[in-house]
Amino acid sequence: MSDVPPETGIDRTGQSSRVTHAEFAALYFIHAAAVGMWTVCFGNVLTARGLGRYIPYAYAVASLSAFISPMVVGALADQRIAPMRLLRWLAAGAAAWLALAFWAIERGWHPLWMLLFLQFHSLCSSPVSGLATGIVLGRLRDPAREFGPIRAWMTAGWVAAGWTVSWILSADASTRAGFAAALCWAIVAVYSLALPQTPPVELKTVRSWRDVFGWQAMELFANRDHRAVLLTAALLTAALAAFYPYTPIHLRAVGVEHATAAMTLGQATEVMAMFGLAGLLARVRLKTIFLAGIGFGVLRYVLFAFGSRSLMLVGVTLHGLAFTLYFITAQIYIEQRVDARLRSRAQSLLVLMMSGFGNLTGFLGSGWWREWCLQDGLTRWPVFWGGLAGVTALVFIFFANRYAGQPAVSERS
Fold first, then answer.
1. d(CA 276, CA 317)
2. This model's pTM is above 0.90
3. Of these four, 193, 214, 276, 287, which has the most CB atoms within 10 Å of its CB?
4. Which residues partner with 374 through β-bridges?
C-alpha cells in the first residue's frame, strides 16, 4: 500500500484460512442485514406514522451512544474480555431493544418511548462494527489484500436487506422492517457461538478511567496523518448523514416506489470497489484513493441537486464508490498503522468519530437544514442537496491540505 510503511507492531501469526474467511463473511452479511433492514426505510416508516418531525432525533440517538460504548467496549476487548463474547451479548441486547422500539411505534406509544428504546439499542449496536472489524482484521495475514472481499459480504447483506424489505416484506414504510431487523440481530448473537474465539490482545488490570474508556487511543491524534484521517472521517460522515434518512423520501417523491430496494444500487458499486481495492492500494497513492472517495461524495450530491429520477439513481450508485474508497480504506489504514495493543480501541475511535461526532452533527444539522429548505410544506431539494455538496467539497479541500502521506518504503530507499 502506497504511503503506508510496513507495520511492526501487529501480530500476524494467526491463521487466515478460507474457512475463517467464510465464517467472517457470514458474520458481516448478517450484521449488515440487521442494520440495513430498518435504517434505510426508517424515515418513511416514521413519516407514515405521522412522526416525520422525529426523524433527525431518532437517527441522532445512535450518535450519543457512540461517544461512550465503542471506546469502552474496545478497551474491554483489548484488555479484559474475549471480543467474540462481547459481540454476542451486544447483539442480543441490540435485538431486544430494537424490537421494543418498533413495538412502541406499532402500538402508538409516546415517541419518547421509541427514542428511549432506540438509545438503549444503539448503546449495544454502536460498538459492534468496530469490534467485528478489529476481530476480522486481527485474523488476516494481509489485510490490504484480504479484507475487501470479506467486507464486501457486509455490503451484500445490506443489499439483501433492502430487497427483502421492499419485495418480500413490502415494508418500505412498515414496522415489519424493524421486527425483521431485530430477528437478524438475534441471529448474529447465536451465530457468534460458532465463530473462532480470540483472547484479548493485552490482558491487564484496569486501573484508571483512562483504561475503562480506552482513552489511550487518543494518542493517535498526535500523528498528523492519523489526525487528518480521523477528523475527515467525522466531517465526511456529517455530510453523509443526510443520505440515509432523506434520499428514500426524495426517491419516493420522484416516483421510485421501492425506494429501499433502489438504495441498494450504491451497494452494487460498493462490492465492486471492495474487490478492486487491493489492486488500488498496491498501485495508487493512498492520498489519491482517499480524495477520490471524497470526490465521488461531492458528485453524488450534485446529481441529487438536479432532482431528476435518473440522475438521482446515478448518484445513489456513486455512493458505493464514495463510501468504500474513504471509509473502508480508513479501516485498513488504521489496522496497518496502529500498534496491536490499541487495535480494537483504534477501530472504536474511528467509530466514535463517525457515529459519534459525525452522525450527531450530521443528523441534527441535516434535519435543521431540511427545515430551512421547506417552502409551503415542500422541500427545496436542489437547495438541500446543493448545500450538502458544498460542505463535502470543503471536506475535500481540508483533507487535501492536512494529509501529508508518507512515501512508500521503495520510494524512501
1. 16
2. no
3. 214
4. 379
